[in-house]
Amino acid sequence: MYGKSLSGVLASIPLFQGADADTLDSMAWQVQGKSFKKGECVIEKGCIAHGFYYIERGQVKLSFISEQGNEKVVE
């Protein structure tokens, strides 16, 4: 049941809107929930991602450190 309900969530993500139902169902069964605390890093520049994240609720700040050592927020 969990996988089936997530299929609809995945279908609403623009990247997957062209995917067929079987593909979405298969992907949904691979989803793992993960929570992050405010200020916690999700992934760092240069790290290899072994999946993808979608935001169910909350916000994410995308930023990097400039050559001058200042944090720059990507908008």
Folded structure, characterized:
With 75 residues, the chain is α+β, with helices and mostly antiparallel strands. It has one domain (2-73). It is 24% helix and 8% strand. Strand 1 (63-65) and strand 2 form a beta hairpin. The termini are far apart.
Keywords:
alpha+beta; 75 residues; 8% strand; two-stranded antiparallel sheet; 2 helices
Shape: elongated
- Oligomerization status of the protein chains: single chain
Going across the major beta sheet, what is the strand order? 1-2
Provide the β-strand percentage band: 5-15%
Can you tell me the number of structural domains? Answer: 1
What gyration radius follows from the Cα positions, in whole Å?
16 Å
Helix % is 10-25%
The SSE string, one letter per element, is HHEE
Number of strands: 2
Q: Outline the biggest β-sheet.
A: 2 strands, antiparallel
Low-confidence regions = none
**SS-based structural class?**
alpha+beta
Mean pLDDT: 88
Q: How many helical stretches? A: 2
Cα distance, first to last residue? Answer: 37 Å
